[in-house]
Amino acid sequence: xxxLIVILILCVFIQPAYAVLKKCVDDQGKFHYYDNMxxxxxxxxxxxxxxxxxxxxxxxxxxxxxxxxxxKSEQHIEAQRLADEQNQDTVLLNVYTSAEEIDLALExxxxxxELAIIGIEKRLVIAKVRFDKLQxxxxxxxxxxxxxxxxxxxxxxxxxxxxxxxxxxxxxTQERMERIKAKFTADKQRFLVLVEKKNE
Length: 200
What we know:
Elements lengths: L1 H13 L6 E5 L5 E4 L12 E4 L5 E5 L8 H27 L3 H46 L4 H51 L1
Antiparallel strand pairs: 1-2, 1-3, 3-4
Helix pairs in contact: 3-4
């Protein structure tokens, strides 16, 4: 029994000799020492474990933050973008042999759109003349108290709608022409960059 008591006393006094002291460095370069309670400054930081004599007995590397689903999604989108860009570059180099060919392709694509714009503009002029004429007739009929006023007003509504629709169609077609120009301009610039890289 006495021997058991002696062993217990020795364990109590010897244990601190083997206690582990831990040290970390925060983001500001300041050292933090602790035994059991992890300071908030040491969270996810590299830690050095030392014995009472200051001898390093273990190193724990900083934990790397795990990729979130959002990070993975962004990485996937970026990878897809790079793959699409590479495919577009391959198509450019396979379709065209010079910048002049891109200029010719631009002209071919613009020609039908330019013709469409000319056609819409002509129809718009005719529609505006018709609308203005009906509007003038309606004003005269209203001043004179003509019985034709109701019939004229009935024709004004579709004439006005035609002017509005043709105006919108003209704007849409003009925007389409600008998009075509922008696309071929970007293709030409990219083609020149790719050719320059290829020749390096």
